[in-house]
Amino acid sequence: MELKKNKMLLAAAWGAVISLSMMRISPGLFYTPIYVVALFAILNNENRREISNLGKKLPAFLLYFSFAVASLAWASSVKLVGEALREDILTPLLAMTASFYAAQKLTAQSTSRTLLLGAWVTFLLGTVFSYFKNGATDTLFETVGYYSSYVFFLAGASVPFLSSRTRVLFYPIVAGLLFLTHQRAAWIVFPLFGCVDLWLNRENFPNKKLLVTTVVLIIALSVTLLKVVAEQKPVDSSNPEVQAHNLAERLAKNERIKPWEDWIHRGMESPLVGQGFGRKNVENHFSTGDDWAEKNLHHAHNIILNNFLQLGLLGALLYLAAQIQLIRFLLQHKSPLAIGAATVVAAFFMRNMFDDFSFQRILIVYALILGWCIGGIRGKTLDHTKEN
């Protein structure tokens, strides 16, 4: 009993670490426990074997990472590629390893609700502090784009664990937090959570028409909120004279469409292998080291396009293959942790079709949540193996 209680407390603490890693605070508050646990994970023989076995099940990721490292050979700036490899791959992998190990030691199958509670409480306290002190969430959470992604991470991981009581609180809280960001993309991703929740609880809808009607209502609500948010913004922030008469026209005339086209043309300079891994490396190449106008977008604001620029068509295809392979791997397992992880992956991918948050901090949070979920899945597999 005491051991179970200690595991619950440690799981809540690890959830708090996940949320602290989202905030603009002293890095030592979250890096220290992450690196300490990662060290124990690396020194543990059984954990190393599990990580190795996981890598064998996800070969597309290994190929993608290897291709990113190989891009040092043709990169515009070897230094910037090296920094990107450390920030966007190595450090998140350490975070994932730490959370993978923590999930197995803390029996994630039975402590995940406690971890999510610790993460949500810490995140909401940070939101309240930031909002009432500064009138905005981005002061503590870097940007509203980062903030909305953090909401997606926690919401996606939580959906499979919802009960009839928590569901009543969950959707208003998530919708309210997303509304604070005034992000159009938020309402494109939001229906995903409702649809996954409905699919998981489809037995409660013996009438299929009722199920379909509920899905339609969720999508209609999201479109309505998207319209409200879009109408609060200029159609094209770089050209105030541009006007639109409806939501579809507003989205079609968005200020990012022209820069997207420009980035595609730039990518055709090296269409097969790109300019080398890392956003800063790509920007440095095309700006020739000079200042880059804000209207050009400092990166392509689209994860597929950014991969095309960095690693060419080969890299973009490898990235897509890795994402598909990861979701298929997760959906092979029927556990709430697996479905939660798959929802997080899908939500982050959808979000990154309109931006590309390939920065160290947000990828650390992403890796911590995925590491916990996958570690819990693998831990359950290990337990069954030992019993047999």
Automatic annotation (TrEMBL):
<feature type="transmembrane region" description="Helical">
    <location>
        <begin position="115"/>
        <end position="132"/>
    </location>
</feature>
<protein>
    <recommendedName>
        <fullName>O-antigen ligase-related domain-containing protein</fullName>
    </recommendedName>
</protein>
<dbReference type="InterPro" id="IPR051533">
    <property type="entry name" value="WaaL-like"/>
</dbReference>
<dbReference type="Pfam" id="PF04932">
    <property type="entry name" value="Wzy_C"/>
</dbReference>
<keyword id="KW-0812">Transmembrane</keyword>
<feature type="transmembrane region" description="Helical">
    <location>
        <begin position="29"/>
        <end position="46"/>
    </location>
</feature>
<keyword id="KW-0472">Membrane</keyword>
<feature type="transmembrane region" description="Helical">
    <location>
        <begin position="361"/>
        <end position="379"/>
    </location>
</feature>
<feature type="domain" description="O-antigen ligase-related">
    <location>
        <begin position="174"/>
        <end position="320"/>
    </location>
</feature>
<feature type="transmembrane region" description="Helical">
    <location>
        <begin position="308"/>
        <end position="331"/>
    </location>
</feature>
<feature type="transmembrane region" description="Helical">
    <location>
        <begin position="58"/>
        <end position="77"/>
    </location>
</feature>
<feature type="transmembrane region" description="Helical">
    <location>
        <begin position="144"/>
        <end position="162"/>
    </location>
</feature>
<feature type="transmembrane region" description="Helical">
    <location>
        <begin position="169"/>
        <end position="190"/>
    </location>
</feature>
<dbReference type="InterPro" id="IPR007016">
    <property type="entry name" value="O-antigen_ligase-rel_domated"/>
</dbReference>
<keyword id="KW-1133">Transmembrane helix</keyword>
<dbReference type="GO" id="GO:0016020">
    <property type="term" value="C:membrane"/>
</dbReference>
<feature type="transmembrane region" description="Helical">
    <location>
        <begin position="210"/>
        <end position="230"/>
    </location>
</feature>
